[in-house]
């Protein structure tokens, strides 16, 4: 199973981080998970392989969020009592069950969790996608596998800085090979029952091209000399090839859908690489 949880909260004191909150968001997730199952949280933290979760940056919302999302942007500080939003995606069922148990054991609202040393009041947790909260949702790997179509145009939005490790440097550009190989690596790890075509990487290299883009660069400073430049914005890709490539085209489309949960590129457990496919009229 795949899950996307959106958590609404308010800081009980002014949250004024000196750096981007990547490490604090990472710790925030583990602390919530540890409250549900401490042993599993420790096991997961110690693994060197892919982590089965992503974390979004914190966003500050308008107070009338129940009737609509109304983002006000990403301020450098989050005042006491402000309405904030964070999104966790889970690539396996097990962490979801532990987080669900934790939230079910508390009423709403409730306080206790901390972010960057500041206590928070949890107001609401959403897992069902609605027009008011498109960031929530859940699905199955099987569903993504079976419902994939061989669309020839894919449009994606990258809502947090995205970059890729290439040797000793980072490449903050929407290169199709890097985007889809990042997604394919996670799919192969977490969904081995639905094997990708062995020629998928070669197909992407030859037949998937960047058609248009509207992106900008963004810097994340995690402190301790950890700075990352990434790209944000929208990109469209053309998926070409003949009838003999139909199955490969479907798998590229499936991976684009998977990005909503898996994230793309580096540091997806620290707020980077948040991505989703857009259903564009006349495009897909």
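Sequence proposed for the structure above (284 residues):
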């Amino acid at each position: 199973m795949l899950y996307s949880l959106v958590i609404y909260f308010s800081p009980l004191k002014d949250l004024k981080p000196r750096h981007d909150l990547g490490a604090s968001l990472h710790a925030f997730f583990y602390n919530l998970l540890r409250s549900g199952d401490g042993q599993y949280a420790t096991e997961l933290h110690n693994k060197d392989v892919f982590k089965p979760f992503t974390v979004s940056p914190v966003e500050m919302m308008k107070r009338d969020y129940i009737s609509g999302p109304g983002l006000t942007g990403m301020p450098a500080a989050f005042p006491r009592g402000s309405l904030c939003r964070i999104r966790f995606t889970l690539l396996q069922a097990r962490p979801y069950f532990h987080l669900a148990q934790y939230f079910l054991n508390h009423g709403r609202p409730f306080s206790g969790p901390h972010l960057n040393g500041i206590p928070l009041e949890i107001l609401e947790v959403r897992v069902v996608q609605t027009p008011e909260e498109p960031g929530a949702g859940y699905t199955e790997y099987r569903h993504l596998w079976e419902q994939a179509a061989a669309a020839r145009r894919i449009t994606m939005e990258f809502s947090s800085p995205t970059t890729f490790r290439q040797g000793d440097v980072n490449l903050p550009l929407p290169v199709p090979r890097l985007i889809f190989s990042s997604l394919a690596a996670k799919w192969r790890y977490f969904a081995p029952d639905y094997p990708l075509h062995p020629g998928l990487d070669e197909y992407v290299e030859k037949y998937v091209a960047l058609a248009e883009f509207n992106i900008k660069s963004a810097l994340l400073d995690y402190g301790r000399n950890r700075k990352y430049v990434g790209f944000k914005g929208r990109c469209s890709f053309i998926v070409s090839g003949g009838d003999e490539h139909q199955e490969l085209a479907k798998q590229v489309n499936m991976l684009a859908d998977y990005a909503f949960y898996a994230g793309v590129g580096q540091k997806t457990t620290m707020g980077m690489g948040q991505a989703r496919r857009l259903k564009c009229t006349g495009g897909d």
